[in-house]
Amino acid sequence: MFQRRGIMLILSSPSGAGKTSISRAILRQDDNIQLSVSVTTRPKRANEVDGVDYHFKTVDEFKQMREAGLLLEWAEVHGNFYATPKAQIDELLDAGKDVLFDIDYQGALQLYEKCADDIIGIFVLPPSIAELKHRLERRADDNEEVIKRRLKTARQELREWNKYDYVIVNNDLDKSCTLVTEIINAARIQRSRQSNLSSFVKGLQDELESILK
Ligand SMILES: Nc1nc2c(ncn2[C@@H]2O[C@H](COP(=O)(O)OP(=O)(O)O)[C@@H](O)[C@H]2O)c(=O)[nH]1
Ligand SMILES: Nc1ncnc2c1ncn2[C@@H]1O[C@H](COP(=O)(O)OP(=O)(O)O)[C@@H](O)[C@H]1O
């Protein structure tokens, strides 16, 4: 009904807590939200599609993009480079499209600094560390050494929970998705995001006055 600027929805978590599963479900069910497809130098997983899940790049290609100023934020995570390409984000937000960022806390902090007013940040926690480890093992995308590295990185990631607007413990995936949907729906009707709300209220006031005459 009202024009509004899009939301930058950030989902972060220690690896294995479930942010990719939550993101995929949200993207499937909500046509107005689009994934910001990151650039990464990590190897592609079997179930991933280049250009859909990530833009897979060599380290040289990544560095060229960074030097050319094409990245909104970037970070090194688990020994690989990851970044958000600048292209399109502003046009999407101006057009009222919401954009979902599956990025780590280093990227989230950079975006909070640059675009604070547009951001809703959600940090996803696992129900326990034993379950986090099980999920990484069950996912079976990474070898033992990579899993260990991801768990080590979780030490630092867990310290960052209090930088986010919302925190979800991802026990039941469906319930977590419902919570994220509720957060998105609430954010969409925030007063500050609805740009022509004052003219709508003015219209109501004029109509009211004409009835009360
Ligand atoms: N800063 C930043 N982090 C990213 C970006 N894309 C992905 N990440 C993060 O990099 C980490 C590793 O991602 P990935 O290798 O897909 O493994 P996952 O943690 O199991 O999803 C996760 O914390 C992602 O959120 C990005 O563009 N920028
Ligand atoms: N609530 C949940 N309960 C059980 N398994 C889950 C849940 N959420 C995600 N998973 C599973 O855990 C693994 C890691 O989830 P994923 O979404 O890839 O995490 P992340 O993107 O945070 O690394 C996947 O195999 C996924 O199917």
Automatic annotation (TrEMBL):
Q: What is its main location?
A: cytoplasm
Q: Which InterPro entries match?
A: GK/Ca_channel_bsu, Guanylate_kin-like_dom, Guanylate_kinase, Guanylate_kinase_CS, P-loop_NTPase
Q: What's its EC? A: 2.7.4.8
The record places domain Guanylate kinase-like at: 6-185
- Keywords on this record? ATP-binding, Cytoplasm, Kinase, Nucleotide-binding, Transferase
Q: Transferase: is it a keyword of this entry?
A: yes
* Recorded superkingdom: Bacteria
Q: Give the reaction(s) catalysed.
A: GMP + ATP = GDP + ADP
| Tagged with keyword Kinase | yes
The entry's function note states:
Essential for recycling GMP and indirectly, cGMP.
Q: What is this protein called?
A: Guanylate kinase
Q: Which organism is it from?
A: Maritalea porphyrae
